[in-house]
Amino acid sequence: MTTPAVRCAGLRHAFGDTVAVDGVDLEIPAGRIFGLLGPNGAGKTTTIRMITTLLPAKAGAVEVFGLDAARRKMRVRRLIGYVPQQLSADGALSGRENVALFARLFDVPRRERAEQVDNALGAVGLRSDADRPASTYSGGMIRRLELAQALVSAPRLLILDEPTIGLDPVARSSVWERIEQVRADTGMTVLVTTHYMDEAEQHCERVALMHRGKIRALGSPAELRAELGPGSTLDDVFRAVTGDAFDDADKGGIRDVRAARRTARRLG
Ligand SMILES: Nc1ncnc2c1ncn2[C@@H]1O[C@H](COP(=O)(O)OP(=O)(O)OP(=O)(O)O)[C@@H](O)[C@H]1O
């Protein structure tokens, strides 16, 4: 059996009295697009931060391609490209300069840097806009630039936290198009969190539904819907396994995140 890209066992993290992640067992097969779905506050970002080694687990273990994330932190970090929810591009720099900065941060060898930067920009469709300031980019272009920043070190696991939040439908599909193309070209594993059930249905081969720190359902979107019966949606599956409507569980917090990304749509 091939080693999974990620294996979490009994993963737990609490912030004071708030248990954000509550005993998560999860296996993410290599080479697929895997969606971690759940409403605001479900524990998705906290789970991702433990997988990236940015946050130590209070209990349980994470393995990335068989490497223990607690003991082999630096090796694990080199396998991962991470696009957080927060903006990570600098509006004063050109697209190319932004990606080159990440190439230096991730120790891409000096003689390969210019080519790798150009390849990453090409992979997200930004080559012709690469030399103007990122402050002139649209929201979708900024998201694609952040994708290029994560791709420049040629990671085996690409982790995207809400990659399409706050974008209009056209920009959302262009981001997904690039993600799917990169995965097809490189075979890398993609772990994505999203609030958008329709996007998960369309683009993720497997999904985990997370609610209040726990994984409530796991499988392909089609399998999960089939278990519930004909005509059901992923929203229905979520309601069936949690007893909550997805939107009710959200408690409005997502609006703040959306607003934040909307205001950040133009840099500078
Ligand atoms: N740094 C922190 N300090 C205190 N509480 C936190 C912190 N980060 C997250 N939490 C809490 O942990 C819980 C899980 O948050 P987390 O951000 O992991 O959820 P999420 O599913 O990623 O939601 P979102 O889409 O809003 O990021 C929430 O109750 C949140 O308020």
TrEMBL record:
SUPFAM superfamilies on file: P-loop containing nucleoside triphosphate hydrolases
Pfam family, one: ABC_tran
Bilayer topology annotation: Peripheral membrane protein
Presence of the UniProt keyword Transmembrane in the record: no
Organism domain of life: Bacteria
Residue span(s) of domain ABC transporter: 6-237
Annotated localization: Cell membrane
Keywords annotated in UniProt: Antibiotic resistance, ATP-binding, Nucleotide-binding, Transport
Keyword Ribosomal protein in annotation: no
Entry-linked PANTHER family: ABC TRANSPORTER ATP-BINDING PROTEIN, DOXORUBICIN RESISTANCE ATP-BINDING PROTEIN DRRA
Protein name: ABC transporter domain-containing protein
Source taxonomy: Bacteria, Bacillati, Actinomycetota, Actinomycetes, Pseudonocardiales
